[in-house]
TrEMBL record:
Biased composition annotated in UniProt, kind: Acidic residues: 445-463
Family designation: Belongs to the histone deacetylase family. HD type 2 subfamily.
This protein's encoding gene: Hdac6
Domain Histone deacetylase: 106-401, 502-732
Subcellular location: Nucleus
Region (Disordered): 1-28, 445-470
InterPro entries: HDACs (IPR000286), His_deacetylse_dom (IPR023801), His_deacetylse_dom_sf (IPR037138), Ureohydrolase_dom_sf (IPR023696)
GO biological process, one term: autophagy
Record's protein name: Histone deacetylase 6
Keywords recorded for this protein, A-Z: Autophagy, Hydrolase, Nucleus
Amino acid sequence: MTSTCQDSTASRQRKGRQNPQSPSHDVNAITKRTVKKGAVPRCTPNLSEIKKKGKMKKLSQPVEEDLVMGLQGLDLNPEVKVMIGTGLVFDEQLNDFHCLWDDSYPENPERLHAIKEQLIQEGLVDRCVCFPARVAEKEELMLVHSPEYIDLMETTQYMNEGELRILASTYDSVYLHPNSFICACLASGSVLRLVDAVLGAEIRNGMAIIRPPGHHAQRDLMGGYCMFNHVAVAARYAQRKHHIKRVLIVDWDVHHGQGTQFMFDQDPSVLYFSIHRYEQGRFWPHLQASNWSAIGCGQGQGYNINIPWNQVGMRDADYIAAFLHILLPVASEFQPQLVLVAAGFDALQGDPKGEMAATPAGFAQLTHLLMGMAGGKLILSLEGGYNLQSLARGVSASLHTLLGDPCPMLESPGAPCQSAQASVSCTLEALEPFWEVLVNTVDSTEEDNEAGDNWDERQEEGEGPLGATSLPVLTWPTLQHRTGLVYDQRMMSHCNLWDNHHPETPQRILRIMCHLEELGLAARCLHLPVRPATDAELLTCHSAQYVERLRATETMKSRELHREGANFDSIYICPSTFTCAQLATGAVCRLVEAVLSGEVLNGIALVRPPGHHAEHDAACGFCFFNSVAVAARHAQAIRGTALRILIVDWDIHHGNGTQHIFENDPSVLYMSLHRYDRGTFFPMGDEGSSKHVGLAEGMGFTVNVAWNGPRMGDADYLAAWHRLVLPIAYEHVSDCQVSDPVRQPVVGDSNDS
């Protein structure tokens, strides 16, 4: 495969990661650990062991240095102002131009009128921080455009209709109006105003609802309704004025933004990602440079990413797959400090130009996926979109998401089609030499033009978008409280009577709560009262005999408690253990009730003892009742149906209990990311291996990401998240997600390494 401007001598040189890497480890050199979880050897060390400890201390210094560097990158100062609010620029002056010689021209003032009506109808304008548009100065436009071109555009203010028509005919797909220049300057200035507000910590994110669009404009050429390239100007402006080093530009307009690509294709400080209709060059702008093989030139090789769609009818699943498999992994390695989106909505179902089948809910999901980058510094700049209803609803969905509203459920997104998979595979193969995160991700896929085309099948089944005239109406819950918090200090009474240094200490949840209060996070949550789990709730996952066995420990004496704890694996029991385990499980059930009733949108339960090791009839690994499993069954009981539930378990230890409880059940998708060490890490054995995928009807609904070694870092977890967790979760389309972060794997945890 060839790439535009590709230097054969440098094509295999991979770009270095942005962050320093930890030293490599031999995953085969794994020492056998004791069976007990968190157990500490108590033998007296001899001289050789003392020397060995000294040597290990020296070797651990890089670990401590990594920890210090990581903490320095976190802003944990409670005095720092939390950026809140979504900026919005919407100015009526931007409607002061239209095509003088063609009233049916698709780029017209009605586009913004439709958007305004939709946003007012949904009450979104009042929820935003509104900024007036400002005019971009010539010096700002010159960051990406030539002064001669700007001067020429300025003269259009004084031309008559005939002169404007003659000049417009020298460009591709444009019209000119005496007000085109000032409106284009206002459009660029609108995005710059949001850049100042976001990078100046006035707001968290923003959207510029502007026209004319901009992403087709080149250094000295108009094109595709565009005069000035707004996102390109904004990227350079952010770098020059705000000293931003790395900018990500995402272009999801159905047309390729060739203007933006040409401006940055030699620049490694700007990562440009475009996903667009191509059809082997038959779709506008009809350029080979719009294909996957155009990856940038010189120092910019690998920093230009094109995902060309070679058929119409692409759906949400296709767009989401491109984001998960290419954009998010590369962006996580690139580490942008600002994300700009050329936000065209002509890929929505019903658009006459795009002929695609994406939905407003799908664009809400895409917006949400971008919000985790660059510390949330995200700006959307309107580009295309020519079906007024689709355009208005697409803008509304993205703005809802920027404001923090939950993404609407996707209607059976399914898997990406074969043509989309082929396009993604070709792009991956072209980029693989330049990004470490993409190593070994390329599947052996046939060329795109040989891929099976299931578009005809969709049309025959009556599922094609071209015949559909209406989009589903989305509902957006608006609540006073978004996040619930469950915490009860009574759960601290569960303690180890024989070992004051046991890792599962009562202070764990207290320290977390104190930290949340210091950061001001606890005050922003709705505090929910804790209740104990009922016997009926516990019996959905545990046997009656086991529940009564634990209840009996409330009246046992110290020696009996010690003996009973020894009957289980890595367990201690005290007189208050049963009550605390009841409270912990009931707390998670209470949170589920609050979410399903609409009292809150999401929440966190600070509970102990933990639960994910607890089996149907046995305590295990500090766990007595499987709180997440019981909560999942409680959610299904509330709804009265086999509610589809996703359980994500990122505790460093495999949740053997949770897996066993649901391994036959296709209504619960259990996904665990854990240290495995080929079965030598607690809970030992092969239950946590990747080969265990469920049983009977639950086959495929157990997913184990088993780490065979220590020191797995952010890049490893993100890779698993992008390549496995999110793609499967999107296909599962769960009605409820439950995460089980019993103890996250962090640098410095002696039990997790």
